[in-house]
Amino acid sequence: VTTRVIATAPAAGSGAGDNLLIRTGNGVGTSNGGEITIMAGAGASTGYSGSIELIAGNGGGGDGVIKFNTNSTTYAILNASGQFGIGTEQPSSTLHVVGDPTLIGRVGISTSQASTTLHISTSTPILSLASTKTLGKRYDIRSGSITAATSSFDIFDFASSVSRLVIDTTGKIG
């Protein structure tokens, strides 16, 4: 494998040549592709202490998105609003995942220090279990019940708007 510098870009704003296009392989429509490696810093012997920035749509007519593609298929996208989509080209939140993600380790919701596999930390944490079947039900598992100020745990039937199981702070079941 031969590695060579194919182009350098002049300083921004210096006039002609502000854009840099890198193409590898034999060209568009061929199966003989190449590889692009971007390194920042002083070089391999010093540990690459620089940084790399990808900037899209900075007044240059682009749409302000950064796409992660292989074989003409977009698998991830960062849009101009800062929303990152995996498995979707139209993310609707800060992180929008479509598919079957695998999470290994701890997940925290409203906390930066998850102490258990799933850690939800809010003033009224609710875990909803909802069936997508016809006439499916939704149950909420709640800690610090919204409807009864003294209960510490309840299972709430959302459709009927009633707690089905309540365990109060003394351990009594009601």
Note the main sheet.
4 strands, mixed
For the biggest β-sheet, the strand order reads 1-2-3-4
Question: How do the SSEs run, as a string of H and E?
Answer: EEEEEEEEEE
The total of helices stands at 0
Quaternary assembly: single chain
The computed structural class is mainly beta
Q: Termini separation (Å)?
A: 72 Å
Poorly predicted parts: none
Helix fraction? under 10%
What's the count of strands? 10
Q: In what range is the share of β-strand residues?
A: 25-35%
Mean pLDDT: 74
User: What's the shape?
Assistant: elongated
Radius of gyration: 26 Å
Verbal overview:
0% of the residues lie in helices and 28% in strands. It is built from no helices and 10 strands. It has a 4-stranded mixed sheet with strand order 1-2-3-4, with no helix packed on it. A 4-stranded antiparallel sheet has the order 7-8-9-10, with no helix packed on it. Strand 1 (66-70) and strand 2 (73-78) form a beta hairpin. It is elongated and about 75 Å long.
Task: Please provide a brief summary of the model.
By secondary structure, the protein is mainly beta.
Tags for this entry?
10 strands, four-stranded mixed β-sheet, elongated, single chain
List the helices and strands and how they pair.
Layout: E1 66-70, E2 73-78, E3 84-86, E4 95-97, E5 107-109, E6 118-120, E7 126-130, E8 138-143, E9 151-157, E10 162-168
Parallel strand pairs: 3-4, 5-6
Antiparallel strand pairs: 1-2, 2-3, 7-8, 8-9, 9-10
